[in-house]
Specification:
With 275 residues, the chain is an alpha/beta fold. It has one domain: Lambda Exonuclease, Chain A. It has eight helices and eight strands. α1 packs across α2. The radius of gyration is 26 Å and the shape is globular. The chain starts with 21 loop residues before the first strand and ends in a 14-residue tail after the last helix.
């Protein structure tokens, strides 16, 4: 078995009979939105999607940005990038900040109607002079064109931002609908590598709405309570691959079985003799 993938997970499995709150992360809510079948197989049957390889360069950018903004957090000063975009904000200082940014912990809230503990690990939070906080998410890429949030697949980025806003509101904070993406675009137009990557960094404002969150969470709970595995999503690459492979395997098996059942004709060996 691969050390990177366990197709028979036995931990964090939803049990419809259990009265204990079930922990569900922001990424699993996004999985439900993308494909209820994959979500059900993952959270109820312990069969998750095979993981992608880690994006180590993106993770490095994320870590270095956190270190950089933490310097200004400690001194309660505005980062030069904020000033460049005319934002009168400072990095938010809070005793829980490190935990809120930690995977598998993050910001947490017990949502009683679903009996779920919902979690999400933020990248950063900024605050204005009135104490209103702003969710911030770091993104890194490398492309020749200007970065934006216009692609269809980036809807997941917006869902992520809005889910974090909802979590923080449920924890009693006054949260602005406006959030910010700190988008780092690795430059390809430099003459040489010289052992370093250079980035153009852009702050992209995004006004979110968390109106969808609670309805989707309740739908996710309803999905897990069912006995039957949901239908595959037509747009799910994983389900489409699995279905195509099953069709081929079934066809090959049918041919094999047919070959076994087919009666063999007796061969008659004719020998000719010279007279």
């Amino acid at each position: 078995m691969s050390k990177y993938y366990n197709p028979g997970r036995s931990r964090n499995i939803f049990d419809p009979e259990s009265k204990d709150p079930f922990k569900l992360s922001r990424s699993k809510i996004e999985l439900f939105l993308n494909c209820p079948r994959c979500f059900y197989l993952d959270r109820k049957e312990g069969i998750g999607r095979p993981p992608s390889f880690p994006f180590n360069l993106n993770s490095a950018v994320d870590l270095l940005l956190k270190k950089e903004f933490d310097i200004h957090r400690a001194s309660n000063k505005t980062h030069p990038l904020m000033k460049a975009y005319g934002l009168d904000l400072v990095p938010f200082s809070h005793p829980m900040m490190d935990e809120w940014r930690e995977n598998f912990k993050g910001v947490q809230y017990f949502y009683e109607p679903a009996n779920f503990i919902l979690t999400g690990a933020v990248d950063d939070i900024w605050v204005d002079k009135k104490g209103v906080i702003y969710v911030v998410d770091y993104k890194a890429t490398s492309k020749d064109t200007e970065v934006s949030l216009d692609a269809e697949w980036q809807k997941g980025y917006k869902n992520q931002m809005e889910f974090y806003q909802w979590l923080l509101r449920k924890n009693g904070f006054e949260v602005s609908n406006m959030g910010y993406f700190v988008y780092c675009n690795g430059r390809r137009d430099v003459e040489s590598f010289d052992g370093k990557l250079e980035f153009n960094i852009k702050i992209i404002p995004y006004e979110g709405s968390d109106d969808w969150v609670e309805e989707v969470v309740l739908r996710a709970k309803e999905c897990l309570m069912k006995n039957d595995i949901p239908e595959a999503d037509a747009e799910c690459d994983y389900c489409n691959y699995r279905e195509a492979a099953q069709i081929k395997e079934s066809t090959q098996k049918d041919r094999f079985v047919a070959g076994i059942k087919k009666p063999r004709s007796k061969k008659v060996k004719i020998q000719s003799r010279l007279i």
